[in-house]
Design brief:
Elements lengths: L2 E2 L5 E2 L2 E2 L4 H15 L11 E5 L4 H14 L2 E6 L11 H16 L3 E5 L5 H14 L3 E6 L5 E3 L5 E3 L9 E8 L5 E8 L4 H11 L2 H12 L3 E11 L14 H16 L6 E6 L14 H12 L6 H12 L13 E2 L2 H4 L1 H11 L6 H10 L14 E2 L8
Parallel strand pairs: 4-5, 4-7, 5-6, 7-12, 12-13, 13-14
Antiparallel strand pairs: 1-15, 2-3, 8-9, 10-11
Amino acid sequence: MSERVVNPSGRGFLLVDSHPTGCFESVARMRSEAGAARDVPADGPVALIIGATAGYGLAATVAGLARHGIRGVGLGFERPAGRRTATAGWYRAVAAGRLARELGRDFTFVNGDAFAGSTKDETLDLIAKRFGGLDYLIYSVAAPRRTDPAGVTHQSVIKPLGAAHTTRTLEFDRDGTPALREITVKPASADEAAATVKVMGGEDWALWVAALAERGLLRDGFQTVALSYIGSQLTSGIYRSGTIGAAKAHLEATAAELSELPGVRALTSVNGAAVTQASTAIPGIALYVSLLREVLGDELQSPVAQSIRLWEQLTGAAPFDLDEAGRLRLDRWELDPAVQARVAERWATGMGDVGWFRAQFRALYGFDVPGVDYARPVEVELPWPTT
């Protein structure tokens, strides 16, 4: 046993420890939000969710388990406890694994680098042995680097393209006091832009689909979705018009290419803004989401609410909401012109709902979650979930 009191520590938007009980409670709250299960058979659809331990991938996992009876595999890349606690995603995987068992779903988790050939082999072997095929592949990966099949490691950057970009950004000091400051980010070089596309674009997604097809694991009606984001004009200079946006454009082009393969329907899903561990690293996004919450309040749609809509469209319970480019849109609530106008009015002078944002950010690591006794020692060395 290795029980101890876990306190948050770190700098900026990066905490170095995570609280197991807080992470468990966060997953429990997601499951409660997902609501009652639909009338699904015991042998529900088989899904592979890549990036299942954080952000929208986790939300899609919980919503799929709770409402649509999915079976299958969730893939994450997490660190066990050692000198520090395990990563928050490790504890969320434990919680989601318990949820799957409680719901009677045949769903297991694999811990490994999604970009690695060995991880693909292990995951596909598991799918072939356990399920014989796949109905859905949801790809939700945000990573700082990727080693490609040729052994070359590419590093992603968050930079504008063409010219430097100046934006306002929200930060918190060590005692939680919010502050706004202006930063200027230099433009990416051609090599940096290309490397970011290699990491965050559609190349690895296509490799997963190709590997599934080669193994004969694509079931009739197979659908795959890569989760994406467009966002506001207020953040476009650093996001959609920057290196990450170039990678998202490549992801969208990959969807079109994959849809030309026999038996494959591939889409990108444009999700709305949310507080995630990936999004907090992008200059200006914290301020934007804080302002968006101030404008919308409880009408800001959570990742679980959006994932429910995603699954309803994938399973045919609701029609697809596609734009002129063929992208599935879950972000229309965010980009409504009236909403964007109200956010823009506050952009130059406001901070938004900083209390809400800080609580949401800390909850990513299992802190500030209501109902958790943080003075109580908790076991931090928990085994990876197995079924």
